[in-house]
From TrEMBL:
Amino acids binding Zn(2+): C128, C131, C149, C151
Native organism taxonomy: Bacteria, Pseudomonadati, Thermodesulfobacteriota, Desulfobacteria, Desulfobacterales
Domain Deacetylase sirtuin-type span(s) in chain numbering: 1-250
PROSITE patterns assigned to the protein according to its UniProt record, in alphabetical order: SIRTUIN
Catalytic residues (positions): H120
Keyword tags: Metal-binding, NAD, Transferase, Zinc
Protein name per its UniProtKB record: protein acetyllysine N-acetyltransferase
Gene3D superfamilies cross-referenced by the UniProt entry: SIR2/SIRT2 'Small Domain (3.30.1600.10), TPP-binding domain (3.40.50.1220)
One Pfam entry name: SIR2
Catalytic activity, EC: 2.3.1.286
Length: 250
């Protein structure tokens, strides 16, 4: 394991442009359950029934009560873990250009990452369906469900529901980074949900080295990853960051 960490650190130290792709696995250590797998949201809740945009528009109160309010409570109090902080430190050192995240928890920003591409939007803000007013999610109480804007309209989280498109800017910038990077860190995701799953493949096709950090092997491990660092995101990324040489000037 130490040999692979050193190999990954050398790659990151030499890389002209490095980007990270993160999924739910990096936020598990912050107390946020994943959406798939053991202990996930979708074990007990049918996503097509409660996470589809049509379901929300048809009965926002029900979706808020069953799914959104519980998720909001978790995200309002969640704090970045060592994995988020390690990626922010890599960016601070000039060793990471951007984070492409499938998560909606804004923990990368809270950790200090500055360029975060939110593939599936964010839960940090809510928008009124009627007037479009945007408010910080943490500032909106759950006294009444669904919560209402001052204009009387219903608030919705600024995340991407099933049935909605990925924000065009996020998709475009992600593709640009994936096609241009020398190295990609894939953290806490099996990269099976499209179109995010195509980013490591696109990077690989354009000559990038793929460094995967996950607790168990994924479909990506055997097909795309060049270096597989097995373990929790917090522990592995902390060790990797410590091993990366701080760039010096020309």
């Amino acid at each position: 394991m130490e040999t692979r960490i050193q190999q990954a650190a050398e790659i990151l130290s030499r890389s002209r442009l490095t980007v990270a792709l993160t999924g739910a696995g990096i936020s598990v250590e912050s107390g946020i359950p994943p959406f798939r797998g053991p202990g996930s949201f979708w074990e007990e809740i049918d996503p097509m029934e409660f996470a589809h945009v049509d379901a929300f528009m048809k009965d926002p109160a029900r979706v808020w009560e069953v799914l959104v309010s519980g998720l909001k409570r978790k995200l309002d109090t969640a704090k970045p873990n060592k994995g988020h902080l390690a990626l922010a430190e890599l960016e601070n050192r000039g060793c990471l250009s951007a984070v492409i995240t499938q998560n909606v928890d804004s923990l990368h920003q809270k950790a200090g990452s500055r360029d975060v591409i939110e593939f599936h939007g964010t839960f940090a803000t809510l928008s009124c369906l009627d007037c479009g007013h945007q408010a910080a999610s943490a500032d909106i109480p759950l006294t009444f469900l669904p919560p209402h804007c001052q204009c009387g309209g219903v608030y919705r989280p600024d995340c991407v529901f099933y049935g909605e498109s990925i924000p065009l800017e996020a998709l475009t910038r992600s593709r640009e980074f994936a096609s241009q990077c020398d190295a990609m860190l894939v953290v806490g995701t099996s990269a099976v949900v499209h179109p995010a799953a195509m980013m490591p493949v696109l990077a690989k096709q354009n000559g990038a080295t793929i460094i995967e950090v996950n607790p168990t092997p994924t479909p990506l491990t055997a097909t795309t990853s060049d270096i597989f660092l097995q373990g929790g995101a917090g522990s592995v990324l902390s060790r990797l960051t410590e091993a990366v040489a701080i760039p010096t000037g020309p």
